[in-house]
Amino acid sequence: MPPLPCRERRPDPRLHAEPRLRQLYVFSSHWTLSFSSCTGYPFRDEVAIVPSHSGSPFRVKRHPLSDDVLGEAATAEEAVALAVRHLPTDLGPAVAGTAE
């Protein structure tokens, strides 16, 4: 299966298939797909997925610009599962507004 596209306007079906990610606001920045629990900037980043490129693994991060890598995955499906495992258990749907 090809890597997660990060420049498409529509969410990747593999992300949409996961209910906990589907309820969050998704945005892309610096070639990374990020998931926020609010819809406005500044976002409240919950988790981010850096797509695989040039043979590197997918990386799951807490924040799209941080060096805080939570884990690596060989496939998009594994990256989605890893991202979901790092979401707060009591996280609900994204709310309108910003993190401030």
Q: Give a quick account of the main beta sheet: strands, pairing sense, barrel closure.
A: 5 strands, antiparallel
Structural shape: globular
Query: How do the strands line up in the largest sheet?
Result: 1-2-3-4-5
User: What proportion of the residues is helical, as a percent range?
Assistant: 10-25%
- Whole-number radius of gyration? 12 Å
What do the pLDDT scores average to?
A: 85
Strand content: 25-35%
Uncertain segments: 6-10
- The span between the termini is 38 Å
Structural class: alpha+beta
- Count of helical stretches: 3
Elements, N to C (H/E):
HHEEEEEH
**Total count of strands:** 5
Keywords:
five-stranded antiparallel β-sheet; 5 strands; 100 residues; 3 helices; alpha+beta
In short:
With 100 residues, the protein is an alpha+beta fold. It has helices at residues 13-16, 19-22, 76-85, and strands spanning 25-29, 32-36, 45-50, 58-61, 69-73.
Structural commentary:
- A hairpin with a 7-residue loop joins strand 3 and strand 4 (58-61).
- This protein has a five-stranded antiparallel beta sheet, with helices on one face.
- The chain contains three helices and five strands; from the N terminus they run ααβββββα.
- The protein is 18% helix and 25% strand.
- It has 100 residues and is α+β, with helices and mostly antiparallel strands.
- Mean pLDDT is 85; it is low at 6-10.
